[in-house]
Design a protein that fits this description.
The chain is mostly beta strands and about 475 residues long. The chain is built from five helices and 30 strands. The protein is about 10% helix and about 45% strand. Strand 21 and strand 22 form a beta hairpin.
Length: about 475
């Protein structure tokens, strides 16, 4: 296989469904040694032995097209695809992890392949000056504005250069939840009109990993004195400045950052002490029946939103402290871990082999407004959880029905089950059974603004 074919083949999974880029502006140039591929010259940037650039296939009408951000380790002849945008007709999306993770950041390792030699030889020999950063300004909240002095070029009234914005901590960029500690941008300045635009941008982590980026040039914008780009204009548009000796405001350019907290499993996070008493009270209300050590429910769920049926496996493990650990296993490697107490969720965590795992969502406030578990009684409670836009609160009330033999729900069950009809105020309704043997609320029917969903049990495996 030729090198150019191998590079294209690496993202074949992406190209097969390639759901990708919006219209891309910029002057693309053909890669002479690799027919059918083009690159964006202003995207090419060298940092030490690493070269970063954007390449694409020559666009074809009605066919799958792709745009790829490359990170090349020239010393070790290794390559990784930071991300890939792709398109097939009107269907678009971004892929990470060599096409395995859609529209959510996932890390990927360098890979070396002899078949990529032509690509290495071309990219690593591009006439790029190694980056030389200088600090030029300190912004509000501790950000540093930096200029790559070796990249400054001026033709007539137009100057171009690479800039870096160094932030005090690692943050996350929507919509892909991509982590970054700094951003590099290729900027065009008009020295006469004092206007600028960003042509290319990369999000970086401290180790040089690119996690996100933009390749659609922004509109020209007027500079203001408070704008960080105004500091770049003072350098790039000053024809009398000796750039070789320019040192800026001094100081280190790559500041150490506090590391991201370790990825946590649901078992790594304790129930907040603030709600421990309420959890104990709720536990005292729930019916006390002999429980199994583990159960696996295979159920079929049908949603009115998508008009399709899906099989879900639910693994249930009652714990000694009275709570229940639940794992819902969906298709395509997606699962959700929960810790529940009756109809109340205490913790949850989403897992996926298509994306970086999320953190644990924790109930931080819980109020129970009922005192007995009996037919005709109502169990009501209020919950608060953290969310991106601020704490999320909701109220729920569940009407308890007459207990039934649990084996009427499924022959594998023993003991009793209590019908529950729950109303989540202003949000949704649920109907199902609290099964004492499992310490688990099986939701058979739910309704919300997203439509209706019905679940039926196909089988239950009990471990005693």
């Amino acid at each position: 296989m030729s090198s150019e074919a191998h590079v294209v083949g690496k993202i074949a999974l992406v190209c097969f469904l390639l759901f990708g880029p919006s219209a891309i502006a910029g002057q693309w140039e053909t890669i002479a040694t690799m027919p059918g591929l083009e690159y964006l010259p202003e995207s090419a940037h060298r940092i030490g032995d690493r070269v970063y650039l954007i390449h694409r296939n020559t666009p074809r009408e009605g066919a799958a097209n792709f745009v790829i951000a490359d990170d090349l380790d020239c010393q070790n002849q290794a390559l990784r695809i930071s991300w890939a945008n792709g398109s097939l007709g009107k269907v678009t999306g971004r892929y990470y992890n060599n096409g395995k993770s859609q529209d959510r950041y996932a890390s990927v390792d360098f890979k070396a392949a002899d078949t990529d030699q032509v690509f290495y030889d071309w990219a690593c020999k591009l006439p790029l000056q190694p980056e030389r950063l200088v600090n030029v300004r300190t912004e509000q909240e501790g950000a540093l504005t930096q200029v790559d002095i070796s990249s400054v070029k001026r033709i007539g009234a137009v100057a171009t250069l690479w800039m870096r914005h160094d932030y005090p901590t690692i943050n996350f960029d929507p919509p892909y939840n991509a982590p970054f500690d700094s951003k590099r941008e290729f900027v065009r300045l008009n020295c006469d009109t004092s206007r600028y635009s960003t042509l290319v941008g990369y999000d970086f982590m401290p180790d040089g990993t690119v996690t996100d980026g933009m390749i659609a040039p922004e509109e020209d914008t007027a500079l203001t004195p408070s704008d960080s780009y105004a500091a770049a204009k003072e350098i790039a548009c000053n024809t009398s400045m000796d750039l070789k000796s320019f040192a800026g405001i001094g100081g280190i350019t790559s500041r150490p950052k506090p590391p991201l907290p370790p990825k946590r499993g649901i078992e790594d996070v304790a129930i907040p002490t603030e709600i421990a008493k309420t959890v104990a009270r709720l536990l005292s209300i729930l019916p006390d029946e002999p429980v199994v050590s583990e159960a696996k429910i295979t159920q079929t769920s049908k949603s009115s939103l998508v008009q399709t049926s899906k099989q879900v496996i639910v693994v249930i493990k009652p714990k000694k402290d009275g709570t229940t650990r639940v794992q819902e296993i969906y298709d395509r490697g997606v699962s959700v871990d929960r810790e529940v107490l009756g109809p109340v969720q205490l913790k949850s965590k989403m897992n996926s082999n298509m994306a970086e795992p999320s953190d644990v969502t924790l109930t931080t406030s819980l109020t129970v407004n009922s005192g007995t578990w009996a037919a005709g009684q109502e169990l009501s409670f209020e919950i608060e959880m953290p969310a991106t836009a601020g704490p999320k609160k909701f109220e729920m009330s569940c009407k308890i029905g007459e207990p039934i033999e649990a084996n009427t729900i499924h022959r594998s069950l023993a003991g009793h089950a209590w019908p529950l009809e729950c109303d989540r105020k202003g949000d949704s309704k649920m109907r199902g059974y609290y099964v004492g043997q499992l310490r688990y609320f099986f939701v058979a029917h739910s309704e919300s603004s997203l439509g209706r969903s019905d679940s039926t049990i196909d089988g239950i495996e009990i471990g005693r």
